[in-house]
Specification:
globular; 27 strands; alpha+beta; 16 helices; 25% strand
Length: 596
Amino acid sequence: MNAKAIPSILLFGSSLLLCACGQQEAPISGPVDHETIRYSEMVYPNEKGEVKRDKGFNLLFKANSEIPYVSIKEGFNFLNVVKGVHTGDTKNERFFYKVSKEDNGYVVVNEAGTKAHFNVKDQTVLYEDFDSFCALTDTTTAKPFALFTIPKGRKSIALTSSEFTKGSAVTVNLKNYDGIDLYEKGEELYMPLTTFNDMFLNVTQFTNLAYNYQNLFLLPNDSLVDRSGSTPKLTKIGEAFFAGPKKATLTEELKKFHYQETCLNFDYFYGLKADKGFASFASFIQDKGFKGDFDNSDTKKADAALRYAVSHLVDGHTAVAVNSPLYGFGELDDDPTRMNATRTKWVDDGEVFSSSRAASTSPLGNHLSGDVYFISFNSFAAVNESLLYSPKNQWTAEAIATQTALQFSNAYSFLTAEANKGKAKTVVVDLATNEGGAADALIYGLSTLLGEVKTIVRNPLSGAVGRASYKADINLDGKVDEKDVPLIDKGYNIMILDSRFSFSSANAFPALAKANNAKVKTVGERSAGGACVVREVFSGLGASYATSGLTEIVTEEGGKLVNVDKGVPADLAIEGAKMLDRSHVVSVIDNYLQGK
């Protein structure tokens, strides 16, 4: 599930205002024999996808090192800008984070008084309250942990209630990761840029600070590669990122940093660690036989080591998207014997099943078949309010087909029109070939069907629990109120069609639907799982990969919170290709309703 609730123009104004210090210098690649500080511009894509450059950071490099370090002062100044944009403080008039010295190190405090302590002596970072400290919201005015945080000005979805149960304090012990440290120089405290990115930025912000071993990049999720065509190709910012220096052979330092940063990331910030049953990612890699792959100095093989290892998590969210810029963009060219066969088969079979949709009697889109109305789509596209609130007579077929909220609204208009009264008894949301997508589209669709939607999320690292209820502006009058009557209250039966390939949001959709209304029935097969909001991460070598993050969707069963990763079973079983035979699905549903 992608909870990307931030507008695509996040952080891409005319100036990033990053408070950089020092003189600008031309970027230099490779180590030097003395400790040095190099200024790096910030390279980023604007809302048109153009490559832009703005104020950046001073990056520190130790003697004979290629690993960039960022001062926590500059890092948190940058996070002030990130959080300011999301909360509407676009002029950056106030600071959400402040850095100061304390005994044994430094302390960072956020706007609500929540602190993170950086202990230089012990090489630890202690979050007093991880979820409040790292929250995307302004925690002086909003609860810090929820499935979906509503950006300022959003009107299609309203938060109707929320509560937050604080988790335990979290300590990250950097001494366990050789080569990753807190480093004090004068009045500044530094840590590796990639570590700062993993610990404070991509855990909640849906964007990354990444280094291509020449320059600093600000990269929103999915910004490197254009996958809209038959062959993936680099975007303009992707081309800039991969234009950096290449290395056929890694130094011992780079090889070690790649391994240690991977272990740190999965030890602390991987949401399904407990479910996958490993005490540490180092032990997981060792048990699966991949430690030698990470020890390889060949850049291509070291890159592949990460892909091989994470495939054995058998987690549909966790996979490498592109190679390291040190190796270069291109086919991943994996050794199939090193990849997990179960995950590979699931992906391959899913592609075959999805391709069969085009030749089936169950097309995508909105269709009335007998007395069953089908809403079918392959991914949850983030809500585009400018389209949603444009006049309905201007909604094009393409817009409806590609915008999930428009598709649900279009279905609602048809089903509630006087001319169509009595034509349908049941609404089926067909997610048989759906791979997931944005959380706001998930909420909008569920609310159109059921009204208020209650959600529960848990942070498996801290144990914090966030409960939030949402309701959509179903009638599109610009406000959420009692006039927004869901389809279930109009007398329609609500059913959801899932397959063993229905993943992420397509798995959460039936789980949350059934948790909110016992009348909802599921059709088809058990869904594929996918319990956590996805994070995009950059490896120590700069390879982009995704993981299951620390926002875990749970439901309450018998007083216990249970994540939805094991999938949702079908109340009405339909196997394989029969799910794509619309007449068969209608027959199964009608027979069930007649037998009630």
